[in-house]
Amino acid sequence: MTRVLVTGGAGFLGSHAVAALAARDDVEHVVAGDLREAQVPAGATWARLDVTDPATVRAVLAEHAVDTVVHLAAIVNPGTLDEAAERAVDVDGTRNVLDAALAAGVRRVVVSSSGAAYGYHADNPMPLRETDAVRGNPEFTYSRHKREVEEMLADYRERRPELGQVVLRIGTILGPGVDNQITALWRARRLLRVRGSAGPFVFAWVDDVTGAVVAGATGSVTGTFNVCGDGVMTVADIATALGRGTIDVPAGVLAAALRVGRALRLTVHGPERVGFLRYRPVLDNSRLKAELYVPRLTSRQAFDAWQRDRAA
C-alpha cells in the first residue's frame, strides 16, 4: 500500500492528483502538501509544506511515513515573481524535495516537468521525442529553470538510482476553469501570430495529466514521458474554433513592442517571449501511450472541452 505526498497539492493539477490517488484501492494515504490550506477528500490530509524550506519537507515525509512523492509544486505563471523567487521554488525546491526523499527512504518520485525544457528553438525536431536534447532557452527564465531541473534529475538518476523517477514533460494543460497566461492570448478579437510561424500547440486535458501522474506514482515503470493528447492545433485552428481572426506580426516588431512594454511596466513579458510564440515545442506522445498511460482526449478534443466549459 502506497503512501503519497503531493507537493503543490492545493493547486489546480495537485488537487486533481490528490483526489485521483485517494480514490485508489492500492493507495493507503495521500498528503496534500502546500502553503495554501486545501479541502481534501476521504483518504487524504492537508499538511503545510514549503518546498523552499527543507525542514518542512523532511518533517512531512517523516510524520506521514511517505514512500512515494509526486512533486508538482512550481511557479505556474512565470514572470509574475522575480527570478530569484521563481528559482527558489522551481529549481532549489526540487533539490530540497529530492534530498528529503532520499533521506526518508522514499522509493519513487514523479516530477512534473514541461515541454519548455526542450526550449523554443527554430531547429527543434518536430515532433520532439524524449531522447531529443533538453535545451531550455537561457534568456527565458521558465524554460531555463525546467532545463536545469531536468539536468538535476539526470544527475540524481546517475548518483542515486535507488530513487526511481518518473518525469512528465507536459504540454499545455487545459481543464475546467483554466485561465492562465496562455488562455489569455485567446481573449483578443484577433489572435496574435508571429509572421511565418504556425504557432503549434499540443494540449493535455487535466484528467489525462492526472492519469499519467497516478500511473507513475502507483506503477513500476520509470523514465521520462511527453504528456499530451494526439495531434496539434495551430493559432489559426484555435482562432477558427473561437470564431476569431488572426493578426500576423513580424518577430522583430513584436520583440521591440515587448521590450518597450516591459520598460514602461505595461507587461511582465519581454522580447524573450517571441520564441515562446514562434517555436513552440510539438511533443510526440508515443512512449507515453506505449509504456505508461493512453490519453483519452486529443489536443483538439481537450481544447473543445475547455471551450465548452468556458461557455457554460
From TrEMBL:
SUPFAM superfamilies to which the protein is assigned, alphabetical: NAD(P)-binding Rossmann-fold domains (SSF51735)
Domain Ketoreductase: 2-176
InterPro entries named in the record: Epimerase_deHydtase, KR_dom, Lipid_A_modif_metabolic_enz, NAD(P)-bd_dom_sf
Xref: Pfam families: Epimerase
Protein name from the UniProt record: NAD-dependent epimerase/dehydratase family protein
Taxonomic lineage of the native organism: Bacteria, Bacillati, Actinomycetota, Actinomycetes, Micrococcales
